[in-house]
Amino acid sequence: MNKLPIGVAPYTIRDAVEMDYAGSLVKISQLGYKGIEIGPPPDGMTVEEQKSILSRCGLEVIGTHAPFNHIDFNVHELLDYVEDVGGHYLTISMKYHSKDDVLNKAQKMNRVGEMCRQRNIQFLYHNHNWEFESFDGEYILDILLRETDPELVKAELDTYWIKRGGEDPVQYMNQVGNRCPLLHIKDMEAGEGNFFAEIGEGILDFCEITKTAERIGVKWLIVEQDECRRDPFESLQISYANLIKMGLVEAPGTQK
To answer: Per the structure, how many domains does the chain have?
Structure first.
């Protein structure tokens, strides 16, 4: 089995990033992560300065996320940023209050997706658990995927949130098929609390998830842990070490 590149979503270390932006990115790279989903730099830092930090760390920019639950954002401004930092994806997450709301937002996503395509950027939709609520007996996420053009709007599925929504991540990944170039990987603790866990420390089968990811054409596995019971950098280190133990990542020094 080929080993997919492993990126990170810095939401995991959001507090540390606020206190020490550059130092936090250095720590991520030292843990072994190769790519990052990242947004525009903080106040007082230029994009060129941000790019210089990322270059020194050897972190490839995968893409960025649009503002949460806001479809009427300045698309071209974010696309300018993604192009500038060398990313390839622009991702959005939304909430919904009715089936009509889903349908209306799906059409807006098609329009944003076309704007992205004209700039050679792929537009993605990132799920949480609420997209597995139903309108007229159909999951919100299924409605979205049906009502959006599969070339204009692809998926960034999230293993934890699929499970939290009541579905099996592997089965749902197979259902979505080759429409999922990025995959957020995060684990879930056993028990009723459904708390987040480091990769390999919870109940999800990441060997099967990764085999499926490779089969359906996922380009990046992206580690994210929304909440941690320990220091978030330690959580990211544990996740990466467990991916190595499972044979899903090359151990440091073994890359050809």
So the answer is: 1
Q: pLDDT (tens digit, 9 = 90+) per residue, 128-173?
A: 999 999 999 999 999 999 999 999 999 999 999 999 999 999 999 9
CATH number at residue 200: 3.20.20.150
Write the DSSP string, 2-60: ----EEE-GGGGHHHHHH-HHHHHHHHHHHT--EEE--SPPTT--HHHHHHHHHHHTPE
Residue 50 lies in a domain: yes
- Cα(249)–Cα(23) distance, rounded to whole angstroms? 24
> Buried b vs exposed e over 142-165: b needs ≥16 C-beta within 10 Å?
bbbbebbeeebbbbbbbbbbbbbb
In what helix (H) or strand (E) does residue 153 lie, and over which residues does it extend? strand 153-158
pTM: 0.95
Domain that holds residue 200: 6-245
**Residue 255 resides in a domain:** no
Residue 98 lies in a domain: yes
32 contacts 243 by C-beta, under 8 angstroms: no
H/E segment holding residue 107: helix 99-118
> Would you say residue 250 lies in a domain?
no
User: Rounded to the nearest 5°, which phi and psi values hold at 97?
Assistant: -120, -5
Q: Give tens-digit pLDDT for 63-96.
A: 999 999 999 999 999 999 999 999 999 999 999 9
Q: Identify the CA nearest to 37 among candidates 141, 124, 150.
A: 124
In the DSSP assignment, the letter for residue 132 is: G
